[in-house]
Specification:
137 residues; alpha+beta; PH-domain like; five-stranded antiparallel β-sheet; elongated
């Protein structure tokens, strides 16, 4: 699927379905109820879009918040598997120290590899570009 000639979609959708199923089963106990509510909110209102140019996360109450991060702003990725490795959580650490958490990403290992490749390509392109601007001559 293509947004424009320069932006291809790698993943677009919500959190992994296994997260909701596991947390619904945990909701049988009183201790698991907060996790169940969190999984329901994520399943209803959180959407991820990972393209060749940026990472977008739509979430918040009723999906009203949207965060977009271009690859040149990402300095580090931290990922951890969940759900027996079928999905996982990811934290994108940005240049200004901010963090973007993405929970229950399906195929998170492939997603992490994709994002790492884009970060390397972006930093490589920035080094190769000539500096343009005003000169003191």
């Amino acid at each position: 699927m293509t947004i424009s000639t320069k932006e291809d979609i790698f993943y677009e959708g919500g959190p992994a379905g296994g997260d909701l199923i596991i947390n619904l089963m945990a909701g049988i106990t009183l201790i698991g109820l907060p996790f169940t509510f969190g999984a329901l909110v994520r399943a209803l209102w959180v959407r991820y879009k990972i393209t060749s140019r940026r990472v977008s996360v739509t979430g918040g109450w009723l999906g009203r918040n949207k965060t977009q991060v271009v690859y040149s702003q990402i300095t580090e990725i931290r990922a951890i598997p969940r759900g027996l490795g079928s999905y996982g959580d990811m934290v994108l650490v940005l240049k200004d120290g901010a963090r973007l958490e993405m929970r229950s990403i399906p195929n998170f290992r492939e997603t992490e590899t994709f994002i790492l490749e884009k970060i390397k390509n972006t930093s490589k392109n920035m080094v190769e570009k000539d500096v343009q601007g005003f000169s003191n001559q």
